[in-house]
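Worked example 3 (structure in, sequence out).
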């Protein structure tokens, strides 16, 4: 009996501290607590339009934030294990043990805050086109519980891809504003529950690290915007590397969703097609949509080349016989060649001659090379200046810097992505390396045999494709070096110019297979087709009063 009593007393004594501990409620006290979190990186849309799902690196830092005793408390941590999209983190944070809203984001150094379910982030008004968005997620939890919090991080904004139409220009920078006056960037507050957002800035300017070339295809410029609804669409101001500005707008309603993307309709796309063509002593720029029957109905600009005679140091009679005309350098300059032995570069806005050479007998084509250089191709003849390609600097008229052999030179195209010069003549396409600077040189890199002899034209389609035309016409893949015949020209033996839009299938061309006008090589019709494998032209613009040679597209 005594032993039993003693045991009962000891048991009662041991029970007292346990009872006291249970009554000491620490859940409301702010303490330094360990918070376990499982954080998944959701996807975001990158500059190239693809959905990126990043993995955690061992040095990556995520952040969490919560309210503790009415004050915001923040902590950062690196993943316990790296290499996957989902990782566990252990945060040390001032908090209590009560259930509360917890915000998490990445990268940890981003300026992020929240009040209730409204999360505030910054979407820059000055961007580079390579923005990686701030990603965030929210969970309501007792951070100190064993299971911890779980977050899936998603972008705060929407990636808008501005589709800039193909044209003779590049994009250095782009400014986007909302037609309805909505704010699209700056300090952006997003409601986690409904996704609605407000912003503080009315525009975003994207300045690219290097200009994006639009000469061969349309391009998409990424602009990171707040997730708002643009009731009246957007306006876009494009600035080229040459300082030219192009303004355009898309008037469709645009709903921008957080974590999503939006592809706009094409901007910088003119309401009409513009063509430039030449023959005899004339150059014309026309609105093709207005030229219903003859070119005269659509004339926008014209030049009598005989007015250049004195500047060239030639007789006016030597300013006849134009062979090619091209808009170059973002459409700001016009490059002319004549088989009467000269080439000239003009400022389109003023008509001033910026460069010329009379050292190019039987010149049939020229090309502008970035940095202020011009290459000229000469055709058959008996001098050492015939049958070659010559290199000039535009600030040194008449001075040949370098040259290389090109028999019956009829076409030149500069490859902006590979920095090589393509030349065509006879039955070959040649690839040249061009050295600029103190020791200029043109060096033959490769010669590719074409399917037919008598090449009269070479033009760019896109970054991997050229048109090769003369006797028949072909699409030439510069990577595979394969020629694909365009069936539309299977009956043509004397195509003088060919312009092909790989995106739309449109073709503008001149064909002297059956000569028109007073020369065996001339045409008096600008022809148009929408089917490279068709059997005839869909449309004709008549040029009845001149011996025309080539037509080029200034604006599709």
């Amino acid at each position: 009996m005594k032993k039993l009593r003693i045991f009962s007393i000891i048991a009662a004594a041991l029970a007292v501290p346990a009872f006291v501990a249970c009554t000491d409620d620490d859940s409301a006290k702010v303490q330094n607590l360990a918070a376990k979190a499982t954080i998944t990186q959701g996807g975001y849309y990158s500059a190239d339009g693809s959905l990126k799902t990043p993995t955690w690196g061992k040095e990556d830092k995520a952040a969490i934030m919560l309210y503790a005793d009415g004050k915001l408390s923040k902590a950062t941590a690196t993943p316990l294990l790296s290499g996957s999209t989902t990782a566990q983190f252990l945060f040390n944070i001032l908090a209590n043990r009560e259930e509360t809203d917890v915000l998490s984001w990445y990268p940890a150094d981003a300026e992020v805050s929240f009040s209730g379910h409204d999360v505030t982030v910054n979407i820059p008004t000055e961007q580079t086109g390579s923005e990686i968005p701030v990603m965030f997620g929210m969970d309501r939890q007792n951070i100190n519980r064993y299971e911890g919090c779980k977050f899936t991080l998603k972008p705060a904004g929407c990636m808008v891809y501005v589709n800039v139409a193909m044209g003779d220009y590049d994009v250095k920078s782009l400014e986007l504003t909302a037609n309805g006056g909505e704010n699209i960037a700056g300090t952006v507050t997003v409601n986690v529950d409904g996704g609605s957002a407000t912003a503080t800035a009315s525009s975003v300017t994207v300045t690219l690290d290097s200009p994006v070339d639009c000469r061969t295809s349309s391009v998409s410029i990424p602009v990171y915007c707040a997730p708002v609804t643009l009731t009246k669409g957007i306006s876009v101001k494009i600035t080229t590397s040459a300082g030219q500005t192009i303004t355009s707008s898309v008037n469709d309603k645009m709903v921008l969703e957080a974590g999503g993307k939006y592809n706009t309709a094409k901007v910088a796309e003119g309401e009409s097609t513009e063509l430039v063509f030449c023959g005899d002593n004339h150059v014309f720029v026309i609105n093709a949509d207005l030229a219903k029957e003859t070119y005269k109905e659509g004339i926008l600009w014209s030049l009598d080349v005989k007015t250049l005679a004195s500047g060239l140091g030639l007789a006016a009679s030597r300013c006849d016989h134009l062979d090619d005309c091209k808009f170059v350098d973002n459409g700001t300059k016009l490059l002319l060649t004549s088989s009467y032995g000269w080439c000239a570069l003009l400022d389109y806005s003023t008509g001033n001659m910026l460069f010329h050479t009379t050292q190019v007998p039987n010149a049939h084509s020229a090309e502008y090379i970035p940095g202020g250089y011009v290459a000229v191709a000469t055709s058959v003849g008996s001098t050492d200046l015939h049958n070659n390609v010559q290199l000039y600097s535009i600030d040194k008229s008449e001075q040949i810097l370098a040259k290389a052999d090109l028999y019956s030179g009829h076409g030149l195209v500069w490859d902006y992505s590979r920095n090589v010069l393509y030349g065509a003549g006879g039955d070959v396409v040649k690839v040249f390396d061009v050295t600029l600077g103190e020791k200029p040189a043109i060096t033959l890199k490769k010669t590719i045999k074409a399917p037919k002899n008598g090449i009269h034209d070479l033009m760019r389609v896109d970054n991997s494709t050229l048109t090769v035309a003369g006797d028949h016409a072909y699409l030439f893949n510069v990577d595979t070096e394969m020629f694909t015949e365009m069936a539309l020209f299977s009956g043509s033996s004397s195509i003088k110019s060919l312009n092909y839009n790989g995106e739309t299938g449109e073709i503008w061309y001149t064909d002297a297979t059956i000569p028109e006008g007073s020369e065996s090589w001339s045409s008096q019709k600008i022809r148009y087709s929408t089917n490279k494998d068709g059997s005839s032209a869909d449309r004709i613009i008549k040029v009845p009063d001149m011996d025309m040679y080539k037509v080029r597209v200034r604006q599709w």
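Notes: The first strand starts at residue 31 and ends at 41. The chain has three domains: 30-155, 158-267, 274-460+543-555.
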